[in-house]
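Sample pair:
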Amino acid sequence: MEALGIYHPQQIEFDRLNLTYTLLSKRKLLQLVQNGNVRGWDDPRMPTLAGIQRRGYTPEAIRAFCGSIGVSKTNGTIELGLLEHHVREDLNRRALRVMAVLRPLKVVIDNYPEGQVEEMDAVNNPEDASAGSRKVPFSRVLYIEQDDFREDPPKQYYRLSPGKEVRLRYAYFVTCTHAVKNESGEVVEIHCTYDPASQGGNSPDGRKVKSTIHWVSAQHAIDAEVRIYETLFAKADPNKTEEGQDFTANLNPNSLEVLTACRLEPSLAAPAAGAHYQFERLGYFSVDPDTTPGKPVFNRTVALRDSWAKIEKRDKGK
């Protein structure tokens, strides 16, 4: 081109984007689809545009992620956690807060009037004052997360246990009195008393509690399916395998957990397709296209950080 005196274009080379626990090779992704390892190109575990959109990743989060890593000429691998950080940052500003119980445990408040229903004021998004508030029904029988109760609590466990008092989000202080077990010895129901003077979540005598837990009214709860996604591969580098194996040997057998007995607050009875929510204390979730009238389906986009889970995981490793 120089000898002919014609336009000489500039050539710029840059490295491809690589993420931990992720493969971006179209040939290998095709193999996953054809082998039935995923549910299709739009499976929320897939790093395709259709997949990450269905999972609930937003365009703004992807742009922020790409802007933060920049362009390099040196091949490298970016931590998946950085992408998840930008997803959390974006959804924290836009997602409505709601209460959902994924693994329900029945709670009966023995001294709460039978048949009484109150409406508690709940904030839609503390990051956005214009989002306003909503009413959440409260009654004598509730559901809480199974993980929010321990009959024999370990150290640094401040949630509900016999004789311990906690705050119910937006509602009252409650104290556990006893637990009911089935024939297998599993706790299936817990009984509590509540302090009527603590309405709104504060006590007039100034006493403090160390934990606030979320809940839904059993009488008003919406049944839902929730799909919990983890990384598709168990190794940070999916291509790193033992001799004689291919990358599929590193597939994570626990990359998808489907929960079918979830209980949600009534505001989620008819969610808009693709809408984003923060399930308080659990993570960010997006409405899946599989949603049908009366049976919403949610995908977990990304989890919230759980300090207790870190403590429990650390203690198990000792």
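Residues 32 and 38 are 6 Å apart (CA to CA).
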